[in-house]
Structure formats: structure tokens, C-alpha cells
Amino acid sequence: MIFGRSERGKPPVEPVTLKILVAGGFGVGKTTLVAAVSEIRPLRTEELLTEAGRPVDDTSGVEGKHTTTVAMDFGRITLREDLVLYLFGTPGQERFWFMWDELSEGALGAVVLADTRRLEDCFAAVDYFERRSIPFVVGVNCFEGASRYPAGVVRQALDLDEGVPVLLCDARDRESVKDVLIGVVQHAMDHAADRRQAALG
């Protein structure tokens, strides 16, 4: 780079930055997903689970979980030279939901991460994004030992609109997570195009 310009004389590319939320129930893998794909060391706001929180933090099915996100996770991934995604993982417990409104401000779309062993835990996130018309995909985190279900079965169980993509993923695997994020961007673009079309009437 010479004086802010590349050596070939082309101006440096100013990337488009997009904000994507990662939501879902307690212990579903949101922090893991952000960490798997972030090109920077993710910012985490995790605290140890305590005895005081035991009555409100349902750890059934995730007994090995010892920490919980209390504000957000933050990561970044460059998909192309001109496209950067900022990832914001939301806290899963109901007592932290007041933060969702702030985190969702300006979001392009969202991933609702689901665990088929505790599918009801993601109902609140699905409802939240539907009510605010924020485009989202459902990423079914395929935990070891959990039953695998076709996307159509998950869609029916969550009572999703036909247009909402349901994608199977492994929140620990970078390529799997990238596929889900690309799915969010594509779905958000389609959603925006549909709204423009409807406005033109």
C-alpha cells in the first residue's frame, strides 16, 4: 500500500459490514458458533454458573455447562474482500432478554440455533424475530447423541413459515458455520427483494 492506495493504482476496497445475530436457548452453542468462525479472538462476556442461578438456569441436557453468556459474544468474519460480517451472540436466559432490542438494532438477519433435544428453548427467539420482521434462519446444531430429524420435521415442530430456511450444522465446525451465515445473508437479500417488490405493488 502506498499513501492509502494499492500498488496497482486501485483504491483500497472499503468493505460492506453486515451485522448478524446468533440467538437461541441456554446452552445451545451460540458462543461455540461465534468462536468457530471468528477471525479475531471473540469477545466473550461469560460468567460461571452459580448455585444462586440454579433455580432459573435449566441445565437439563447440558449438565456439563459451567459458564453462561451474560451480555453478548462478538466475532468477525470476512466472507469476501468487500464483505465483512459482525456476529453478535445473544444471551440465552430470559432474565437477559432486555438486551436483545439493543443488539438487534441494525441487524441484517439472525441465526436461531436449535437443539432437537430441547427444541422449545428456541421458541422465544423465533417469535422475537418474526414479530420484528427480522429475517432469520434456523440452524439445527447436531449434537453428538441427539436424534437427527429432517429439516421439514423441525420446521413443522417450530411452526415456521415455508420461506424460513432450516439448516443442519455443527457449531464447532468453521465450514459448517460459514454455510449457515451465507444462508442468512442470502435469505436476508431475498427478504429485502420481496419487500421491495411488494412496495412496488
From TrEMBL:
The keyword Nucleotide-binding applies. Gene3D superfamilies: P-loop containing nucleotide triphosphate hydrolases (3.40.50.300). It holds the Pfam family ATP_bind_1. PANTHER family: ATP/GTP-BINDING PROTEIN-RELATED (PTHR42708), GLIDING MOTILITY PROTEIN MGLA (PTHR42708:SF1). The keyword Transferase does not apply. InterPro entries: Gliding_Motility_GTPase (IPR052705), Gpn (IPR004130), P-loop_NTPase (IPR027417). One of its GO terms (molecular function) is hydrolase activity. Keywords: ATP-binding, GTP-binding, Hydrolase, Nucleotide-binding. Signal peptide: none annotated. It comes from the Bacteria. Belongs to the GPN-loop GTPase family. This is ATP-binding protein. SUPFAM superfamilies: P-loop containing nucleoside triphosphate hydrolases (SSF52540). It comes from Streptomyces filipinensis.
